[in-house]
Write a structure and sequence with these properties.
alpha+beta, 4-stranded antiparallel beta sheet, 686 residues
Length: 686
């Protein structure tokens, strides 16, 4: 993909809106049963029935039997719209006042007069009335003048960055991170960027007036198009405290200093005390099956099956463990999903706690956000595989053990020395799993199962259910790193292709803060982490369980990376800064444009500090920039040719420090966007 033209973010990427799946197209709707030849085809609601879904979650007992009908009914109602006021905007108070004193009161009076409108209202659990919820249909928006005015108000304020539209439950994880303005925050799976925007708001809101915060946010995502959306979303924040990268989350680079110098000014001025990039806070909102979003994406109803969570379980563990290895001791990580499946939720958290021992604890945050209704995590659940209920790993038949791993069960026990549990027929032949108990006879598959119960404090996890506060479903766990992760020497594992050679480099007793290799099936994965002062670089390699990458890719549009975590070469998401007299779109047919190179990343615009004194001084003189303003050393460009620099970006001190560390470590980070675009040349160079 490297070298392909069209690296600039395209307008079409943001115009393609999601199909309104609550309504079928006219061509898909059924005809009038009384008149099959009739051309007047009414729009029909999308089908919201899936017997497998009902059976699965009834058996998992995510809600009590008495609540099931209310829970089920709420899932089939459209999700109310929610939005958040940008707390760093200079118009924050005016916008909140207009919502409280104008729109809310006007709609309340209309509702009191017998109208069918619901007034907008603030979310009671979000601080300072900065998050609001509305529940109007498009028909109501067209018919009501107040609503039409409110809708235009929302569109305008969203476009200029004063308001961000975001699902209500999606706003919760950043609040539990407890972010401070001087902290480094990593958002591991950041796109489309609503949580990243919220984290930037928190950092800037808490900073001293008139100065940039000392902290920063590093937002990462794997998918190319989703990175475009992430950059587009965060540009409305106009921040110099953001870096956007493009890596597989489970292989996120360690960005470790090599303690080398190439004689450049950047290297000579580098703080030699910084040897590794670690974070104070990590948001780990992992790819998931997404059945918590059924209310806004009802097309999931027809796609859903009980095995969707099984295919993502190992990947979710790897991402979470990588996040913990990048977290500072004393830091906090939030693990979250928009799924209700315990295999993706409590099972992942339980495996994290087992692997980390006492170095990581699951926090009880029940006293935070008291008005947010949440339920405790589950301590017992079952796994479903090909229509069969499994209560323990010892119930798994031999030929299913590649897809079902011990960590999916409450105890996490491997049951070493298991005999072949594959049932036999009367003539002695193996019975296929498809021939065992089927979904239409659930009792036959659960009556004789001995349920496991986890002895870990999983009740500290949080489940947000749709019928509690008219939201989507969400799962959240808050983890605190109390000490370095245990250093465990992993045994050799075979792998495909050239992975095996790279893995041999990892089997060392050296204390290294990073991710160690994982065995096939996810049963013997180990994490190595000890003193971060160990100044040594390793290749961070993780083997994926057989078939898991393909499952994750199809579900979450992930792009498979290379064996060392390197994503296939892609173009930069900021426009490549070719000479101004040679526009990218005007390159002659058959003529190859020279690839930009960012360290080892081909086809990606470089990130270079801009140190042309003559240009900098002319800019300062023209704009009257005071010498006290931190200007020199804070400018970067995305072009190797300093004679044809078209755009100059400004970065905060925290981002500057990360860039310098990245240079020192051999440019491990694949940076797609950095800083705030401050100056653009309007002259054409010949």
């Amino acid at each position: 993909m490297g070298g392909r033209r069209g690296s600039r973010t395209q307008r079409k990427h943001f115009k393609e809106s999601r199909e309104n799946v609550w309504k079928r197209r006219r061509t898909d709707s059924s005809t009038d049963p009384q008149n099959p030849n009739s051309d007047n085809q009414a729009w029909q609601p999308f089908a919201t029935q899936n017997p497998s879904f009902d059976e699965y979650y009834k058996e998992q007992r995510i809600v009590s039997p008495e609540e099931w009908d209310a829970f089920n009914e709420m899932l089939r109602k459209p999700l109310p719209a929610a939005f958040r006021i940008n707390s760093t905007s200079q118009f924050c108070e005016d916008i909140r006042s207009q919502l409280e004193n104008d729109f809310m009161k006007s709609l309340q009076s209309e509702a009191a007069e017998g109208g069918d409108l619901e007034p907008i209202k603030p979310l009671p659990w979000y601080p300072d009335n900065l998050a609001w919820q509305s529940n109007f249909s498009r028909m109501q928006l067209r018919k009501n003048q107040t609503l039409e005015r409110f809708h235009e108000f929302l569109k305008l304020e969203t476009e200029i960055g004063n308001i961000s539209r975001q699902e209500a439950v999606s706003m919760v994880p950043p609040l539990f991170l407890d972010v401070h303005p001087d902290q480094f925050v990593l958002d591991m799976c950041a796109a489309p960027g609503s949580k990243t925007f919220q984290l930037l708001e928190i950092i800037h809101h808490s900073a001293k007036g008139g100065s940039l915060p000392d902290g920063m946010v590093l937002a990462n995502d794997l998918d190319v198009q989703r990175c475009n959306l992430l950059i587009h979303q965060t540009k409305r924040m106009c921040t110099a405290n953001l870096i956007v990268t493009n890596h597989e989350a489970q292989h996120f680079p360690g960005c470790r200093s090599k303690n080398i110098s190439n004689g450049s000014e950047v290297m000579n001025n580098l703080d030699q005390g910084t040897t590794q990039l670690l974070f104070d806070r990590v948001l780990c909102d992992v790819p998931c099956s997404g059945d918590g979003t059924l209310r806004k994406a009802p097309d999931i109803w027809r796609k859903w099956n009980g095995g969707m969570g099984n295919g993502l379980h190992c990947l979710q563990i790897q991402i979470a463990m990588r996040g913990l290895s990048l977290l500072k001791v004393g830091g906090r990580m939030v693990y979250s999903t928009c799924s209700m499946n315990p295999v993706e939720n409590e099972a992942v958290v339980a495996e994290i706690l087992r692997r980390c021992g006492g170095s990581v604890e699951l926090l009880d945050v029940s006293d935070e956000l008291p008005q947010l209704i949440r339920r405790p995590g589950l301590t017992k659940w079952k796994v479903r595989d090909k229509g069969v209920w499994l209560a323990s790993y010892k119930d798994v038949i031999k030929f299913s053990r590649n897809g079902i791993v011990p960590s999916m069960f409450p105890s996490g026990k491997n049951f070493v020395g298991l005999t072949d549990n594959n049932p036999k027929s009367e003539n002695g032949e193996n019975v296929n799993s498809e021939d065992r108990a089927q979904p239409d006879d659930p009792a036959s598959s659960t009556d004789n199962l001995e349920e496991e119960v986890s002895d870990l404090p999983l009740g500290r996890c949080m489940r947000i259910m749709p019928h509690d506060q008219n939201t989507g479903a969400f799962f959240i766990a808050v983890l605190h790193k109390v000490s370095h992760l245990p250093a465990i020497q992993d045994k050799s594992v075979s792998s495909q292709g050239n992975l095996s050679a790279k893995k041999d480099e990892l089997h060392s007793t050296a204390e290294i803060n990073g991710l160690e290799s994982s065995s096939v099936g996810g049963t013997d994965e180990k994490i190595l982490e000890v003193a971060p002062e160990a100044d040594k670089e390793i290749s961070e390699v993780t083997s994926e369980p057989d078939g898991k990458i393909s499952v994750a890719s199809s579900m979450a549009d992930l792009v498979d990376g290379g064996p060392d975590g390197v994503v296939p070469e892609t173009n930069s998401f900021e426009a490549a800064e070719a000479p101004a007299d040679k526009k990218i779109d005007s390159v002659k047919v058959g003529e190859k444009r020279k690839l930009q190179i960012q360290g080892k990343w081909r086809g990606v615009d470089p990130v270079l500090f801009f140190n042309e004194e003559a240009t900098i001084n002319s800019i300062k003189t023209f704009y009257g920039i005071d010498d006290s303003f931190p200007f020199n050393g804070h400018l970067v460009t995305r072009n190797n040719d300093t004679n044809h620099v078209k755009r100059i970006y400004y970065v905060s001190k925290s981002v500057k420090d990360v860039l310098e560390l990245n240079f020192r470590g051999g440019q491990q980070l694949k940076i797609t966007s950095v800083g705030l675009k401050l100056f653009v040349s309007i002259f054409m160079f010949f």
